[in-house]
Batch of 4 targets.
Target 1
Amino acid sequence: MTIPFIALTMIVALIPVMGMIDALQAIGVALAILAVALATTAFFVPAVALSRFTRLIHPALIAVLAAPALWMVLQLLPMPARSLDNQIWASAASALNRPLTGAITVDIGATLLSLVQYCMVAATMLVAAAVALDRKHATNLLYLLIAVTTVTAAQLVVIELGLFDRAQADAEELTLITVMGVVLSCAAALNIYDQLPRPSKARRASTPPVAIFAAACVAFLICATALLIRSETGPIVAALFGITAQGAIFAIHRWSPGPWGKAGLAVSVIVILFGAVALVPIRQNVDFAIAWSMQSPIATERMLTDVPFAGTGAGTYEALLPIYRDASSNANQAPTAAAVITIELGRAFFGSLIIAIFCCAWLLFRRSLTRRQDYVFAGAGATMLAMTPLLLFVNGGLLGLGASLLVSIVGGVAFGQSLSSREGFAPLSQTASPHASPMTGAPSALWPRGALSLLALVLIAQATWILGAEAYELGRHRFIREAISANTPDDDIRRAAAFAAVRGDLWTKSVRARIARREADTATKPSFDSSLAGEDLKSALRYAPHRSDAWLMLALLAERDKLAGYDIGALLKMSYYTAPNDMTLLPLRLGAALRAETKALDPELQDMIRRDIGVVVTRQPELRPALVAAYRSASPPQRSIAERLISEVDPDYLRSLRTP
């Protein structure tokens, strides 16, 4: 298990910096590392050890792990009935004047990326469970996790003291990782303290228990200090619950109370939990998913009101935000993870998820009580899972890459050490002779080898899909994130889009790069195939019909290059529908709408133009030059319509606009 342990150590070591590096590249590298770890586990771990691994991983846990992945796959599949897919697909098909196969999700690429990230998290848990079969590896992982969470807590302190740019890190995710650090350090300290009065020779390793206990206490103080400086009620309540639960488990093992004593401890923990939760301020008359949020997420409230039964697709929260966001708001961060899961996967799924998490926590809690020694692993896992529903309602940090990986590793270690080798399992030292082949052993180990090998192949395919597109996009060793100059290698982005196939963001970025190059190289007049750009934009909208910028670019191409088969008005209306309050698109969209060569402007489009004019004149005066340019470039029929619309908003401004 050396290679899987090293692989897991590499992933844990990356957690403190994952918020500062490219998320897709981090996911791709992590997938490749996990694929190697799973393949090593499948082919080189003794058969009896794998048999023990499968008995530790309860079938209910396998079902819990598989359910979200299957639900995301269902969201990706073409829906046979229009009533099942999202209504945006029908609107997109009408605007493009071509049939589109609808799905539950509104962004195929975003949901597929979310599926890939979830597979990474699930694989991390399985690798952690396999590595934790060895008690020494499990202990080392626990100490490594405590070190990582302590470093994260120190980062949070630096951020709160104003010594580090907040934009460079997700403070909400760091806060939740710090809460987990409180739980892990508390569990380790109690475990060592439980051993101090009666240390055995086997436990007198190179590091004395007193030193480990002191280190755990220091880590606890650093994490607790970070939470107090942060001063958020929700995370502090979650940390107090974790400490209380760990203390109850310690008391049960320390003093071995009878059934009534255990029941009293359980009731005390529940009373303390509900009492602490009552201290958290709750916003009235809002959806329960955002009731504990300290923000005022008006856009999220609207999204929760409109959420369909099957959700809008995993990973689509940010994609839908421009549709519901006000012009005065530019926030992209989700208020709570509960709101994001509810919107993306549906209310029924979220409710089932909460029930499944509590069931797994109860399973680990029961197993922790059956162990005489090393109960800290299962106890910490049970506490972490029991805290998870509470953390989901605090903020959106739990969906971050680092926090989700941390939860999966803790859960894997907890299940790997949830039962002792004497409880129906052969010790690892007796699983195989030194000269035996790893493939020999119990027949029950054959199916887990096949399952782990298949999962490793899936991870390799996913890593190739992500890293391949990233390699093309980074072409010539340039970090291309926005197409803003003539030197942008747009061909590389198009190759990345073609490689990723279903990612609408890359198809849109490719066309934006080519348009930017054409606009910048007016002297050299680079070759530009407008029909090819139109096809690429249709590919973007085929997989991501919510992209307002793609609809606008297609309308501008159809207007400028006279592309046949497009209704410019319909394209502009889709751009308005999908981002009505995006101020970055307003100048181009308003100009295109006023230049549209139609006999009579669509009444619905007139209302959209009137709204944009009202925003510019009354609320966004810095955009008035764009309105002037659009007015002066408008065709005579549209100019008269624009004058009528402007006069309805501000007659005085119309007179100044007419003045040369």
Target 2
Amino acid sequence: VLVALLIVPFSLARALFTGWIPLYFINIANGLSVILASFFLSRMSLRLKSNYLLVSLWAAGVPGLLTLGMSAPSIWWLVLSCIIASSLYSVRVALALTLLTLLTIALTGLAFIKHWLTPGIDLQAYQLQPLAWIILMIMIGSFILIDLLAISSYNRAFAHVLEVRMQELVQARQLADSANQSKSDFLANMSHEIRTPMNAVLGIAHLLGNSTLDASQRKYVSMISDSGHSLLSILNDILDFSKIEAGRMELAPTAFRLSDMVQALSGILRTSASNKDLNLVFEIAPGVPAVLYGDALRLQQILVNLLGNAIKFTQHGQVKLNVMLLEQQGETVKLKITVEDSGIGMSAEQLGRLFVAFSQADASTTRRFGGSGLGLTICKRLVELMQGSISVRSQVGIGSEFCVTLPLETGSESALAHDSGRAHKQRIDGIRLLLVEDNQVNQIVARGMLEQAGATVEVVEDGLQCVNHLRNYPQRYDLVLMDIQMPVMDGFAATRAIRDELQLSLPVLAMTAGVMESERERCLESGMNDFIAKPINIELMFSTLLRYLPALPGASQPDNAPAPVTATSTDDVTNARPGADTPAQISPTSEHTHDGDSVIFDPSELMAMASGSPEHQAILLGVIKKMTITAPQQMQQAQEHWQQGRGQDAARLLHTMRGSIGSLGAQRFANIAKELELAIRATPPLPPELIGSLFESTHNQLQATVSQAQTWLEQAP
């Protein structure tokens, strides 16, 4: 509209001075087109609309060049203003206007030279008229104003676009943070979900391994233990990758003897190599320091992965580890560690995706050789975290060579503790321990391990009982093993009370099935000394215990024992989401049988584990009998909570029921109770009809479980 208003007086003044009245009507028509564009093309983008207006204004000035020639300053201001302003919105339009202007100037000059065109007025008389100068100044000011408005409009548009982009970036970051948090929550939940039953599996395998077994039974127990540790290693790979991705992986440097590490690697890998026609070779070149300072556990993790892969993909020939010294400057050394094999090798295309997470060199190898596809990715990230580098060379059918270049510090013999941090199932005769654990099955497992090692163990079931017990008997115990998630008072509150209220300094170690770094921080903040992760690693548990127990006859004190895995107390059931493990795809009328299992209740494994202790057997019988009475009442209470709109209370109660009743041998009930729990926690909420049907199915399964449990109790000795 502003452009159109400027065109009208400009064209009128020019028509009056030049006598070219038709030009006035041409410019009026041009102005009307601008106004129409402003009103009826409002949906046009800012860039298109601005260029259209500027081109129209430029077109209004072209007749001036043709009539007044190159001597009219107002025409120049008009044309140059259009070119400058259009350059802000479109460089192409500005270039086009410039070219057209030059062409117009050339044609106008030629027309005046050839006398094809003559001014319609006396230019000298025109220049002496005050009104002409006033109009000229007004027009010059107007065109400058147009330039300023164009620049201002461009700046506002640019600022708006920048603000929109910033908002999009903030939203994208919030989504990324939310996704990262969801991933961390999922890993915490799944780690607890998997590690809790793994604790029982590996614990029972350990107890059975120390009992009287024939050769066949011992082989079966060994297979259970090996498979459990294999599953645990996959879980640890996923958690390590998550911690690295989140920047939460921390190194724990200690002094270590390289020869001890190589000897440990030999012991770990000899069995898998002995099943093939393989020669396993370990070499440490002269000049490599005997004692080094660095994260020995992470270095061993890297080498176990590289050597394990070499053995996995090599059927015959040789797998070789070589360690040599590249350079040494003061106490800093740079080592070159190579792992060579004569295996299947890799192509250039396979090498390109070798270190990509969740992938393998060949998709077919996933089924043939197994693995999570995370091992080499973790190796690369760990090496880079240790300021090193890793590379690989390979040829199909010939073999592969991985090369790790790593800077380390030299260590001294006096800095060495760990017997390499290994407790070797150290006996702890005479040690008095207080176990704080609310789950009776976990009580039996942990108590069995500790009492077999010679400890005296007393058990309380929640943090408040622990605090009251220590208030009455402050000097009775050498150490407290503290669960995290407990009723009445959790492990954090109990530990704070032990430190602040009771002013006791005895060691408190957390025992939890979680593995997240945040839990470690909470443990230390509450006053705990350390923590032991579930499933319990026997050697690591005793190694950690020995760091905080008083000196025992003949027992080594591994001051530099490796730190245990981090832990978390987050709830082990993730909020169900569409597309995840939600009950939306579950038929409420299904039989809910899992893996073809038709057994509803079978506590035989627990009873077998407690066979050497009449006291433990009596406890288990009492727990089962109590379950048959209280479980139906709890089920009714959970349904009432849900009907009253207290879904989270219902989910928590179902979580407790499926954990305790499932641990007794009612896996089918645990599975369907989990489906119901996930349905209640689902986001967005699931239809009440579906949840009601799941309640009915869960109730029916519980009745069948209680019925079989009562039958089992009648037949129990």
Target 3
Amino acid sequence: MYRALVFVLLYCALGTGVAAGQEAAPKPARQDPAQQPTPAAGQQAAPAAPQEKLSDAERIARLQRTIDENEQRLNELKAKVDDPQGDYAKAEAEFATLDKDLEEKKKTLQKLQSEGRADEVTALQTELEDLQKRRNLTKDRFDLAIKERKTLQEQIVTLEQKLAQDREALNKLKSPPATQPAAAPGQAPTTTPAQPLAQPEVVQPAPAATTPPAPSAVTTPPAEPAQATPGAAPTEAPAKPPSKEVQEAQDEVSAKDAEAKIAEDAATDIASRIEQQRNLITQERKQLKLAREKVDIEQETQRILNEQVQKRSSEGAPQEELQQLWAKIAEARQRVRDTRAEVAKRVDQVDRYQDDLDRLQADYIDALEEAEKKREEADIAQHRLDEIRNPFAPRNLLKWAVEHGPNLVGILLGMVVLLWLSRVAEKRIVKVLVGPATGHEAVERENRAKTLVSVFHNAANLLVVIGGIFMILGEVGVTIAPLLGGAAVIGLAVAFGAQNLVRDYFSGFMILLENQYDINDVIKIGDVGGLVERITLRVTVLRGLDGTVHFIPNGQIDKVSNMTHGWSRALFEIGVAYK
């Protein structure tokens, strides 16, 4: 009767194990869109279903819900890692017990073999084989628990990083973005070159690094204005402030660049969140794989325990031993149910993570489009600023012609008028100098006037041309002060390096001042004589009797013989015969 009862119970246990072994196929995790195969060349990919763009309120609500779920998940993982009655602790304790029992029974077997007790050795060997199988399964279960614990710790780190990123994104959605300050007048806006956004990649989570706190802002007292030191070089003049149009364009470029930078940072943040989300999916799939392996191990453990119950029952084992085996079978059955529930839970968690990843990828696409749009607007504003600053742009040339053209035309007309007035003044000067004198005195005065007028004409033309050139340069926008300083330096260098030239001009001025000779006078300078055709401050031009023209620098004239100064006398040498 007892044996029949045992076999009935064994049959029920085996039936329950078989029924439990018929596990429903778990819902497969969806494939990561980033890991889906790319369509081959020439093959068009199926168009993605258009997703409605979420408002800020929907984004905040969804992000807050994700944060709450991840916080709850993080607390569950931490509780599971720190649980003293968890799978890791039970597997460790069971493996330690079985390993210790196995070592003790091996020592007992060696002792029995040395004593020659063959019957007890055979029974103990059979028991050792069963214990070895259970020990191996427990070892595999403990190895899985170790892997699961490591993956849980990695998942905790990843979840903490993900939560920090989500909270930061939530704060950015709730608070207005910080924009860069506008550029100061006369200062070019600071533009940041567009950098390619890093595509998210699946990376292994690293321990959270401790970021050093940012140094607090220290208010520094304003620097005192530097006092001019005697002998020190003068400070540069302040830069000319830009025009109103340029300032408005600079402000627009600064604002557009700030908006583009904010949009690019938002896309980069989403890319980082996508990386963390993929890490979570990878780690959750590892946990799912380990949970399924645990199911297989627990089912194998249950099968081995059932075989041991059947075997020990047929051998007439004590009731206490059978009850212990039944208790272990019940524990294994419960672990199978718990592990299956864990598998189903992890499948659902993978699906939730995948849904979050899909939404993040949609947000990433929207952020990329927004960043590209903002960057295009910033480039357009920068191009407009460059056109405004480019002096050779058609609109700037036209504007410059409208603003400066009349002034330039006026300067040129003024130069022409001054040159014409100088010619008129020359004639009046000749009349004034000649006066009403008649006879020989009138001719002398006319020659004197022509001499002075020629010098005045050259000086006036030089002054009008140089003054007009400087006025034109000033109207064009060239700073004249450095040019005047440079001209002074060049003049000083010429004075030192070309002393003969300076002496020529000084000697010419003295000749004119003392009225040593005039145009049309017949003079002799050294060994050269002839009619004075032209006098300048530098040279005197003589025409000889044979028609030869002599150019004599005034600085080389040390003696002049004027044969027509005031009056002249003709000398003839006539040979007279004695008779």
Target 4
Amino acid sequence: MSFILRHFRRHGRHYLWGLVFLVATNALLMSIPWMLRGIIDALESGRATPSSLASGALLIAATAIALAIVRTWSRLFMLGASRRVVYDVRNELFAHLQTLPASFYDRYRTGELMSRAVNDLRLIRSLYGPCVLYAADLIFAYSIGLTLMAILDPLLTLAAVLPYPLLLAGVYRVSRTIHRRSNAAQEQLAEISNKVQENLTGINMVKAYAREESETRAFRSLCRTYLDRTIALARSRGLIGVLMRGLGGGGTLVVFWIGGLHVIERDLSLGGFVAFISYLVPLTDRTIIMGWILGTFQRGLGAVDRVREILAERSDIPGDAVVGPAPSLDGSVSIRNLTFAYPDGATAAPRPRLRGVDLDIPAGSLVGIVGRVGAGKSTLVRLLSAVYAVPPGTILLDGHDITALPTQHLRRHVGVVPQETFLFSRTIAENIALGRPDAPRERIEAVAEMAQLTRDLPQFTRGLDTIVGERGVTLSGGQRQRVALARALLLEPRILILDDALSSIDADTEEAILKSLRGSMRGRTTLLVSHRVAPLMDADLIVVLSDGRIAEAGDPRSLLRRDDGLFGRMVRQQRIESELEAM
């Protein structure tokens, strides 16, 4: 409830004005039957005159006009407040998602998060808007209506409200079922959203392997389950409607019978009886709406729980909690007995990906990192930018424990270019300037040239101002990698990590890029992960990983002199492969 009340308090002024207009709405609404009672009683007693009838009709018309205006303002304030609440929650949720680490996104699928950010917020808007509006309207209508009904005929009022306790007890039992079935329906909708997101993202693979029909069948199965769950939910909500209308209708029949007897016995005037019925009908309608209110309330609570579950997540990166001044970094790296395993849900591998790694990298070094697939190369370099939490004292930058460095400060000094790059649907220049949107155009063009991207500019209709399309679909794999490289170079990091980031680039372009990097990154530390050993022959240090451990390390010449070394075998194997390809 703290979450719900916090947003009520934040927009309390709008809700307060909405309640004021809602009270006025019900007061005006309830005054019309009272005025009608006077007119009917005057007609029955013969006291009515044409002028009094005209005055009464004009007064009722004026009240109705005022009622329409006041009712409109009550809805503007109440429903407008609900949209402001959802505006706040949506922004809070998105901002919070930006703070969560990679381990969180390993556990939650994109489609599931999209469902919570769209469908659950729609239910929350109903909770804060129509649900609050109709619930408050119900309370005010009961307060004013029952008071006036009791003034007219206390015994008849008691007969009218007798069925309601039984009705509310039944509704309460059904509403618990609605809560459970609503959660199940929303969870299934999240599965559908995730399926759509995965298929649209991987549509080329679906078509390449002719999986259209099987994917359609799988999607139809998910939709069938969602249909069954929503039908079950509709049955529960419909049951509330049956309870409300059945007991409400039965109560109305009792009121007609008893009220008719009271009119015959002159205990209640005809005008009073008409007014009483005029109060009872709206109360019955509002009582029927209570079924919808309780159903919406339960569904809204389920949505709040799912959103709060995300908001309750906290980053496990120690640097995210570090505040205060941060030291400048030169780029030396020290790794001490680093053992690391991915958090639960991040990988199916039960064993650590790195085990007892010890490594010293002087500032300004060019370091090559090689190894077989799954040796731990990408894991090692990713940990340097605090993507995952590491034990304290295992990774030091210039002697500073990275767990004690502010994460944002660390990442400004560590530039990472992954093998699988991501580009936004913006211009090439905007993608390059992602980390420094205020960078001058000249600097953007300079790093594009360092990344050997300018040689491809004639292919683009508007050069660097060409829109790359969603996820960079209009660029080749090598072009996307060079855009990502230029993006990292623009940050001028003290440590540049190329995680097999040149794998989609031909050998000549790769050589030109590395030559350019040697000049631009002079004095800065460069870590180059590569499955090709040729670009690493000029490295200051080669680190060979095997099964999460450092199998050997040293300069290229010393490693080549080892007859049984892994690096030497990799060099010889790739030379043979190159010779065979040349034949």
